[in-house]
Amino acid sequence: MQLRYQPSLDGLRAIAIAAVVLYHATDFTFPASGQLGVDLFFVLSGFLITSILVDEHRRRAGTVSLASFYRRRALRLLPAMLALLTVLVVFASIMGDVRETALGAAAGIGYVMNHAIASGYGEALPDGLAHLWSLSAEEQFYLVWPLVLIGFFRGRLGLAAWACATGIVLLQLRALDLLATGAATPRVEFGVDTRSVSILTGCLLALLLAARVGPAPKIPQRLELVAPVLFVALIVVDWKRSLFAGPLLVAALCAAVLVLQALDRTSPVARALSVAPMVFLGRISYGLYLWHLPILAAFGVLGAGLTFVAVPAVALSIAAATASYYLVELPFLRRKRRPVEREESAAPPVPDGVVVVQPR
After folding, report:
1. ∠ at Cα 341 (46, 72), nearest 5°?
2. Tell me: the pLDDT tens digits for 91-105?
3. What is the pLDDT of residues 200-257, one digit of tens each?
4. Separation in Å, CA 196 to CA 41, 186, 209, 268
5. In the chain, which ranges are E strands?
6. Which candidate among 33, 67, 172, 285 keeps its CA 20 to 30 Å from the CA of 240?
7. What span, in angstroms and rounded, lies between the C-alpha atoms of 360 and 356?
8. Chain center to CA of 229
């Protein structure tokens, strides 16, 4: 396996963060299901993390350092989050209302925000930190997934892929059961079980490609626009609770196809995703995800309907994300790259979202 830089995957991150920011900046009105941008992140994350784990398993003769894995995750995620939470807590202290922000910061840094919201405690937490639920769900998944992938399957990729596919089916059935029994919407929307279907879809794609001999398959030319068009169509429709009755899984599958297209440098999708503005937006997407909601909340955008105040709020969010990337994230990204990774790739230090595994 060969690790190399793929700018089009940054472009996918740009699509994901644009959908999420627009969704929040328009007070959850456009695109009507913009939260699916989070699931595009999930699919990409599952694909990349699984690919890296499989690659390490092969390079190290059947072993994986879990300590190194979690160290890399911490270096990637924690510095920018700690910077955000520190600023918010200090600001709240100055304003004399720190309790709610401190509770939200604790739920975020403890990666339990999704459980807090799903359990009905969301109203006790600040709106500007509610988006940390996705980071919580993702990290809870990755507490288990490396152990399942390496501990149980030990390189048997075909068996792991079957287990992954089975998990997707079981999680979809779980979502249908919650809907049928009238579970509260926050329970369905923010539960790690219901939303992990997207991460598992990315994991399954990585396993299928890793088990394949030869280059990744190409999408037939006549079908190249099916996944992008269908994904956009799914995002603009307001599915409400029915999103979890099937559209979410379809969106995850479309996202997996988009990842496959992004890996093919000759495809029109990959070329469109590789333009400089898209790549830059993808590079700062993590910081933009962290900063945009608290800034929108500070500007009074949340709950205010469509308002022009959202424009300067989004501009300030992009500026904060750019500062976060260059001043906070990038120094730690350099530290998390191991010597063997530096030998295998001449690319500059970049987030996990732009490192891909290519089968030999």
Report:
1. 50
2. 999 987 899 999 999
3. 999 999 999 998 877 778 898 888 999 999 999 999 999 999 999 999 999 999 999 9
4. 12, 15, 20, 29
5. 2-5, 355-358
6. 285
7. 13
8. 21
